[in-house]
Amino acid sequence: MGHLVWKPGFEIGIEVVDCQHKLLFAYLNEGMENIADSAGIFDNLKTYASVHFADEVKLMRKSNYPAIEGHVKQHQLFEEQVEHLQSAVMDGESKTIMMLFSFLKDWFLEHILVEDSKFAGYLRATMDKDDITVLTEFDS
């Protein structure tokens, strides 16, 4: 499986979210290079998911995003699929790691380019740029 190449068209225009998406891309490429380290791949994905999804939900709540429930459900499905694939890999199903990358690539293209773009469009339609900047400044 070849490297995934980040394209400017993948950006949704919300800097903090775009940076997190680029990190996911890096994890995917790292995982494809180091298939033998499946434990590390899953650890990175779980860390990514917990931080990134929590940040997105914060933004959605702060901005009163009307489609938050469906978006959160997609995040939950992602986490469930990663858990399922991790169990299969740990049980020795060798083809599962390639299934993981295929799933993640498809999920990335569908969720980020469609669903996250809808949210970014909502923010731009309901707030000015300065308000979006303030909104995306997360508390540590």
Distance between the termini: 37 Å
Q: Over the alpha carbons, how many angstroms does the gyration radius reach? A: 16 Å
Number of strands: 0
Strand proportion: under 5%
* Shape field: elongated
Average per-residue pLDDT, rounded, comes to 82
- Helix and strand sequence: HHHHH
What is the number of helical segments per DSSP (H or I, 4+ residues)? 5
What is the structural class? mainly alpha
Largest sheet, strands/sense/barrel: none
Which stretches of 5+ consecutive residues score pLDDT under 50? none
Q: Helix content range of the residues, please? A: over 70%
Q: Please, how many domains?
A: 1
Note down, in words, how this protein is organized.
With 140 residues, this protein is mainly α. It has helices at 15-33, 38-62, 68-90, 96-126, 129-135. The chain has one domain (38-135). It has five helices and no strands. The N and C termini lie far apart (37 Å). The model has no long low-confidence stretch (mean pLDDT 82).
